[in-house]
Amino acid sequence: MPLPLLLTLVTLASTTPAADAARVSDTRIKGIRGGPLIGLSDNRPEALLDRRFQASRIKRVRLTVPFDQIARGGARLRLLDWYFGAAKDQGIEPLVSFYRSSASRRLLPSPASFRRHFRRFRERYPWVRTFSTWNEANFPAAQPTGNHPRRTAQFYNLLRRECAGGRCTVLTADFRADGSSHSAWWLREFKRSIGGGRHIWGLVSHPDVNRQSTDRTRAFLRATRGPVWATEIGAVNFFGKGFRPNLRRQTSAMRYLMTRYPRVSKRLDRMYIYHWQAAPGNRQWDSALLNVRSRPRPAYYIFFRAIGRRAP
User: Fold this and answer.
1) Strand 238-239 and strand 285-286: pairing?
2) Domain tally for the chain?
3) How many Cβ atoms sit within 10 Å of the Cβ of residue 130?
4) Contact 97, 62 (CB under 8 A)
5) How far is CA 64 from the centre of its chain?
6) What is the pLDDT of residues 255-312, one digit of tens each?
7) For residue 40, what are the domain limits?
8) Residue 311 lies in a domain
9) Which of 215, 261, 161, 298 is CA-nearest to residue 153?
């Protein structure tokens, strides 16, 4: 979407009365009693402004934010302002997953630096109260935390202290359940470092869903205790060289995602579906419900049927 048009849409959205954040409505999968709450995982504000998304009546979204974005400012920060403004005006509850700096994927902050950036984020968006410590924290190819579970645990414990007394909710991290020995080691070290008590676990479960499996998820469930939020989960049309474009495969995976996968465990409290519309020029990843021309794919209709809503 062109930037001027996006700005216009966000401005129009911001003229609507804000809903009470404490009265976020629930959306669940029809026919699964006590199943997970359903949200959308998407970083593009135009998704929130799409009337078709609004027709879903989903009031929970998840987005990734560079841990130091407030300090860095610029166009990315203005985009965040638009995103959070649209979410607030529609009474949507954001879940923010922090991740690598836009300046360098290798930049691993100190705990003191991470706390300082978190406090700046809270000062700018005090009404945002749900966080995950780090996105795909165990994935060294993409995140500086990938070989540093103890440092990630420090970040998590720091955020818990910052959010003590019910000021906000913090997830451990978004663990990428890929079944690798590295990820198993990372999780063991992370658990040892955070200690006991009640934890809410974040989970990225693309590897299972797109193989129509629950093996990696079940291994994660055996290794942890407490509620699990699938913070990023989607049916892939294409991903790198391993998954070539294939809408038939995406449709089948989406059907599995919205019918069988949610039954994996009663501990699965939330699923944030990734994502709304395919981005022009993105040749690396596409699990969108709409194509680049904003036309619905079969996965779009499966999504709406699953939540018991009529697809516009």
Assistant:
1) antiparallel
2) 1
3) 18
4) yes
5) 7
6) 999 999 999 999 999 999 999 999 998 889 999 999 999 999 999 999 999 999 999 9
7) 3-16+26-306
8) no
9) 161
- 21 lies in a domain? no
Asked whether residue 211 is assigned to any structural domain, the reply reads yes
- Considering the entire predicted model, what is its pTM? 0.92
CATH code at position 301: 3.20.20.80
Query: pLDDT tens digits for 35-79?
Result: 999 999 999 999 999 999 999 999 999 999 999 999 999 999 999
Q: State yes or no: pLDDT of 7 exceeds 80.
A: no
Whether 97 is covered by a domain: the verdict is yes
Dihedral angle of Cα 42, 47, 53, 58, to the nearest 10 degrees: 40
According to the 3-state scheme, what is the secondary structure of the chain?
CCHHHHHHHHHHHCCCCCCCHHHCCCCECCCCCCCCEEEEECCCHHHHHCHHHHHHCCCEEEEEEECCHHHHCHHHHHHHHHHHHHHHHCCCEEEEEEECCCCCCCCCCCHHHHHHHHHHHHHHCCCCCEEECCCCCCCCCCCHHHHCHHHHHHHHHHHHHHCHHHCCEEECCEEECCCCHHHHHHHHHHHHHHCCCCCCEEEECHHHHCCCCCHHHHHHHHHCCCCEEEEEECCCCEECCCECCCHHHHHHHHHHHHHCHHHCCCCEEEEEEECCECCCCCCCEECCCECCCCCECHHHHHHHHHCCCCCC
